[in-house]
Amino acid sequence: MNGGVLPFSIALLGLLVAVTPLVTRLLGRASGWPLAAAYLGVAALLAPAAGRVLDGEPVTWSRAWFPALDSSFALRADGLGVVFAAIALVIGAVVLAYATSYLGEGRQTSFYWLMTAFTFAMVGLVLADDLVLLFLCWELTSLASFLLIARSGTSAEGASMRTLLITGLGGLFLLAAVAAIVARLGTTSLHEVLDSPVWAEDPAFATLVAVLVGLAAFTKSAQVPFHVWLPDAMAAITPVSAYLHAAAVVKAGIFLMLRFSPALHDVVAWNVLLVVGGLLTALVGGFTAIRQQDLKKLMACSTVSQLGFITAAIGVGTYHALAAAVLHTIAHALFKSGLFMMVGVVDGAAGTRELTRIPRLVSQMPVSFAVMVLGCASMAGIPPMLGFLSKEELLAAYGETPGGQLAGVVALAVGALGAVMTFVYCGRVVFGSFVDGTSDREIKPVSPVMIGMAALPIVVGLPLALAVGVLDTTVGAATQAAVGGPLEDPIHLALWHGFTLELFISVGIIAVGALLVANRRRLTPFVDGRRLAPDSATVIGAIRDGLARVGDLAARGVRADHPSRHVSINTAAVSVVLLGGVIAVRDDLAAQPLQDNLMRPFDAVVLVLMALSVLGVAVSRTRLAATLCLSGVGILATAQIMALGAPDVGLTQLLVESLTIIVIMLVLQKLPTTFGNPRRDGHSRLLARIGLSVLSGVAMAAGTWALTSRRPRSDVAMYYLEEGPVETEGANIVNTILVEFRALDTLGELAVLAMAGVAVVAVLSSLRHEYLDPPPAKNRWYVKPPEVTLTGKGTTAYRAIHRTWPNTVPLQLMVRFAAPVLVVISAYLFWRGHNAPGGGFIAALVGSAIVALMYLSTSRDRQLGRPRLPLFLIGGGILIAVASGLWGLLAKGSFLEPLHAEALGQHWTSSMVFDLGVYLGVLGLFLMTVNLLGTSEGEAPAPGEEWTRERVDEAFEGELPGPMDTVRGERADDHPGSRVGVRTHHVSQGVPPREVGR
Amino acid sequence: MSAADLLPLLVAVPLAFAGLTVLLRRHVVGASLLVVTLVGVLVTSVVLIARHASTPVLASGVGGYPAGVAIPFVSDTLTALMLAVTSLATLATTAWLIMTGETRYRFVVPLVLLLVAGVNGALLTGDLFNLFVFIEVMLLPSYALLALTGGWRRLGVGRLFVVVNLVNSAVLLIGVAFVYGTAGTVNIAALAGRGVQDDRTGLAVAMVLVALAVKAGIVPVHTWLPRSYPATSPGVMSLFAALHTKVALYAIYRIYSVVYDGQASWIGIVVVLAAVTAVVGAVSTLGESTFRHAMAYQMVAGVGHILIGVVVFTQASLAGGLLYLAHHVITMAALLLTGGAIEHTYGSHRFDRLSRLMTREPWAATVVALGLLSLVGLPPTSGLWGKLLLIVGAAEAPGWQAWLLVGAIVLASIISIIALQRLWSEIFWGPSMETYRTDNARTRISEPVPLPDDVRIPARMLAPGTAMIAVSVAIFVGIGLLSPVVDRAAAGLGDSTAYVEAVLR
Lengths: 998, 505
Prior knowledge:
Chain A: It comes from Marihabitans asiaticum. Chain A is mostly helical.
């Protein structure tokens, strides 16, 4: 049928989450009442649908949701869903009502909010008919339980983290299972997945999923070895524990196992994992529960053991066993929620949960005593409680354990042993908290609401057991869903079902248990609460520390600021890939031989010289020598290019080389003259470096040999050659490629080049003057100029050494003549670029040569041009270049598409405007570099000379009287108390700088 | 002039504004231009995403030259999605930089604009050499931004960043040259399928991919990334985290899908590397003891995850990888900006100098908590869907690869949970904080002083991180809206015919 009521209920619960903060604002801790009513309202809303479900007609609803996975927001109520939703809602309502009295005064928003969110997630989980939705709700319950524990104060922090870790691990198991299922079956619909024949056909896949789902459920349901988090979670307040243990998180695990049972109950791994894990958990839980001193911890361990019973029954997988599991889930939800709330009552009355310190409460609180006795009777399996019935069913189920009679007997025996333990710790709860107390602590009154709410689920169990037939359809429907098909014969529950083996075992359990409880004082030394195994904090802490050591190792290996280590790794990786690749493709090389005429004698000369130069760079001890060798490499490259017949590229290369060397020289004057000593690092390092160099050299050579020069001219090249001159009306193919065909590349490189000047200003602005131009006393690399004593101040010799300007006179004279010539050459190169070697870039480099000459010809380190001129050249260059592109877009319909026109007997093209942008940008960069780096050094510059920092500031601000000596160009005393950087503005020694618009 | 012809404006406008803001000294104007640009890119990308529902690919040759000669600018759903995600994260980071005053450092605005131009160009271009150019356009401002803000170590680390990236750019350029050497073209569409048909071209393109792998930070060539990023300021780190590795990953996705049709013979090696990257990133997080160093390794782990999408190369895995990428950008921005706000106020991001901020800064704590949940893939955040889709995709890998990849995701997740729990406990729980470090205008370093009670993170500094985590939560809630887009983007990668035809038409 159409189950519109399902999304409606979920939406209502979602709405409840949303309005809870408002409710708590209005009602404070009393918010539990309306929220409980709302829970019951939702339950009532679902009741008609539940009725139909119990009649055997599942209620479904679905909407498309997550197309990437073909996942839909599908809800489906079947027997299991109804039972678990009812538990979540009804127990939730009781707990909320209880909380109104338990909680202290105050808004308690986080508690109520998380509880409603928790219920929302839980109901979503049990009604989900889609793996994605199921997983989502599963994670939400993990998160909600974590937050509920974490909100309980400092002591709960560690416990909440461990809870999150373990349930998070479970979430990952489930996620892996979901991934495996979706990858295999291609659907996320849960019922389609469960109905699939693949579970029988592919045992390996079924085993994988069984193990993953089983482990996921184990983490949630606190099965060994993941049980450690549940006792830990005791740090949370009692209502949270009651809900967690009875209705929510741990039941989510049980639910998951029941949900997947139709698919997996015949998988051996599933049976083994669940039966062994479950029974082991029952024993471990029971054993630790017996030994606990803290009432609440005892109760937590009892949950572990009870869940173990259920898990084992699910693992048995027969329909009787599944019915028993469902029945015990219901019974456990009832008695455990009540008992936990009773722990809260005892805690409230006695002010302690230590069994040795609780006074004798029985006389003062008879009603509470009765409730506690009934609850424990149910847990211990004493007739006529519901717990008795469910335990009988469980024992019967263990007898059916697959794998032969022996397995059944062993399981039954272990189950019985677990039940004896249950009996014993139940006895401890009753007698320890109410009867045996000797302490004379004051007994405080406890709110009747708390006792009433705690009693409610326990007392309900009594008539339910007597008239257990009413559960027939419910348990039947749930079992049907867990079996995944119609039942062999209908479930019929009754308190008395004749003299069966289980009955005798039960009698035996009660007898042995009663004997042990009667002699409980002799057990006292055994009950010391000590842990026999290391607790979860220790184990998880050890795992974390171990991982941290691995992590430290992994991170430490690369913790170096020096680039060499990182570059070595990268270079080695590149070389290995390239060399390996060339070896792999060697067979293809024969098919594509090298083109003719590749080798000429001249190449060998260049090769040898260049190799020597590179070697020179590598072995030079002084920076100057290294720079010279580097320039040698550049010049040789120019020669090689020229020899290949590309004058345009060669010219560019030559100019770039010269100007680069000038800039490097400017930088060198600020650096120590020598490099560090490479031998300092030791012989093996040196060898490793040489080895890496040789390896990368060989790799690059092999790559070049294998991957280039083995094909005729490409189509693109032919197009450039044939169509280029026609299309662009320019004869210089290099230029037309640069400014027309691939102008976008040029635009990008122009931006890079020009903005490099801006980047230099930006970085230098962030450094204080004393670091940029350290005084000689602080500069450990400072080399004092040699003292040259010369007599006769006016002599030529004296002037030649001590006065700079006479030395520069010849150069200045030369500049006066050369500069105009260079300007003309520059303009000419620019002009003719389209047809002959030249163009904006080369022309700009020639223009830069003027700048370089002018800089070299000055006697003092003087700024060239107005301080902000470079910025205008840079910004203007970029703007002009982009503008020419936009012109093309507007006029011709494509960005950077050139326009051509004939005028004045000349061919004009808009790409010349673009070229102008290039020209300005490059010139601006060079001017900026020379201005910023060409400053004086030393303690006090001569009059008229400037500090680097001052130049930097002036490049941005215009003329200044001195450097603005701040780290970030802001002033600290401007806004005392406020953090610097918030209102950053520039300061120059107390005088705020001129800024446009201020 | 068609709509496709307007694509270069996504580069031209930021570039022009970069030129303009170099000239303008008025901060308000520069900051406004930056914000306007980013909003414009964001809006354009959303329009593009909508448009690609009917027109899967928009392509145009820049300069109006014939296809194959012109540099193509191409946009499909993937490109538009990347534009949207990167511009969103950049916008939030820019807002943060404005709030903290970092945009007032000289030329931060033009440098960020240039970075944006480079990112957009790298995402839109369909040409390998042009990709190299735009990666350079991204790198140049990054050199400056890295060394401009942050602590004293930024300069030494700046050298590391510059050297590594310069060498790597050279490798990238050599790779592009090899591609031209073997195939005679560097147009990605023209190279379609050539990686498989011709082993030499395959090798040449592999060189390009190796260079991109270094940029992306894949183990074992990741080392420079967690070393350099944390040395700069949180804002700049957030910018880099959202842009650099992600653009490289985008390029890897694109090139691998078009040139190799997603079936290179050597992909098994990358499968192992992806798994190792995810786990090494997670485990290295445990070895660090500052917020941003931990985040840097989480980035490495994220790179491993994202890479899984492309190595498995099924519809689900590609969608998973892309969703994870989007999620990771947004989550990382939220975490770095909020962590940055903490650092900015309390003067440190070291675990041992921060403590008990949960009570002091509940808002920041909430944002960080959600961010950490997102990183480990828990609700109510985008991380859940990213991890879910990715792991489903990984399970579709053949044979041992599925086991390895799913195992790596699970292992990395659990280790990340442990590591981030430690981070959380150290910073937000523990004893109350007694001292903090104020900022010092002259030295940037200062001694600890008693922490007064009224020191709090200003709300405006928390706003950008909050907005980003809100986006993450919105993705969690509205996955139904985002999922078709991711699906379309993945489909465009899985079958690149439409891309190739649109470019070479």
